[in-house]
C-alpha cells in the first residue's frame, strides 16, 4: 500500500539523520481494546507501558507507549495496514523511562480558564488537531523529546513532521498539570471540534426529523444548532451526548423547550442542588422520568410549536 511505503521511507529518514535514535508508537487503546491484544499476539519481546494504570477502569482506556524494534515488525506491518488514526509514531533519542514520564505528565493539562482537562492525545484525530493549531512554543514543549512525529490524516495517509532543533537540555520530570494551552489555540480547537460535531448532528437530524428540516432554510440549520449549543453550555451542558440530546429536543419540540414550565422547574431544581453540571442532570431526569402526559404537555404549549 502507498501509505505503508511512504511511512517506512520516512522512518528510514529518521534513522539516517540520527542512527542512535529509536521509534516509538503511542497507541490509543480506548478506540478498541483489541489493539493491545494484537500487539501481544504479534510481539515476542514486548516493551510497553500504559500511561493510565491507577485503576482497572483507566487501564482499559489507557494509551500505550510501545517501543518499536526489529521484533515489532509483524505488529508494525499490521498496524500500518489497518490503522485509522489509532495513534502516532515518533522518533527520539530519549530513554523509554523518560519518554513514559513525559507523556504521562501530559495526560492532564491546564486550560486557559484555569480548569484541568484529561487530554486524549493518543487518539490520532486529537493529536492532528493539536498539531495544526499549536504555536511553536507549545509544540516545542509538548513534543520536547521528539525529533520527528508521524501523523495519519483523515484519508489514512502518513506524514512526517520534523521538530525544531532544541538546545541540549535534559528531559526533567514535571508535576502534572504543567502544560497549558494558549487561549488562541484552545479557541481554534473548540471551533474546529464544534464544526465537526455540528456536521454529525446535521446528518443525525436529517435522519430523525426530515420533515422538520425541510421547512428550514438549509443555511439556517447550522446556525440554529450553534445557537442551541451555546444555550446548552450556558445551562452547564457540555458533553457531546447531552448536547446531542438538547439539540434533538429542540428540533422535536421547540427551540425553547427548556423554558416550558415543568421543564424549567426541573432545570432550576437541579441548579439549586448543585450548579455544576446541573443541565446534564436535568436532561437525564427528563428522559428517565417524563411520562407520556409530560411529553404531551411539552408539545401542546402554543409557544413551543413547530420550528
Uncertain ranges: 303-307
Principal-axes shape call: elongated
SSE order in H/E notation? Answer: HEHEHEHEHEEHHEEHHHHHHH
* Secondary structural class: alpha+beta
Query: Mean pLDDT, rounded to whole units?
Result: 85
Number of folding domains?
Answer: 2
Distance between the termini: 49 Å
* Strand runs, count: 8
Beta-strand residue percentage = 5-15%
Protein architecture, described:
The chain is of the alpha+beta class. The chain has two domains: 2-181, no CATH class; 186-301, no CATH class. The chain is 53% helix and 12% strand. It contains 14 helices and eight strands. It has helices spanning 2-17, 34-42, 56-60, 73-82, 96-105, 124-133, 136-142, 183-208, 210-214, 218-234, 240-252, 261-273, 278-289, 292-300, and strands at 22-28, 48-50, 63-68, 87-92, 108-110, 116-118, 148-152, 158-162. The strands form two sheets. Strands 2-3-1-4-7-8 form a six-stranded antiparallel sheet, sandwiched between helices. Strands 5-6 form a two-stranded antiparallel sheet. Strand 7 and strand 8 form a beta hairpin. The protein is elongated and about 70 Å long. Residues 303-307 have low confidence and may be disordered.
Give the gist of this structure.
This protein is of the alpha+beta class and 307 residues long.
Name the descriptors.
about 300 residues; 14 helices; about 55% helix; disordered C terminus
Which helices and strands occur, and which strands form pairs?
Elements: H1 2-17, E1 22-28, H2 34-42, E2 48-50, H3 56-60, E3 63-68, H4 73-82, E4 87-92, H5 96-105, E5 108-110, E6 116-118, H6 124-133, H7 136-142, E7 148-152, E8 158-162, H8 183-208, H9 210-214, H10 218-234, H11 240-252, H12 261-273, H13 278-289, H14 292-300
Antiparallel strand pairs: 1-3, 1-4, 2-3, 4-7, 5-6, 7-8
Helix pairs in contact: 8-10, 10-11, 12-13
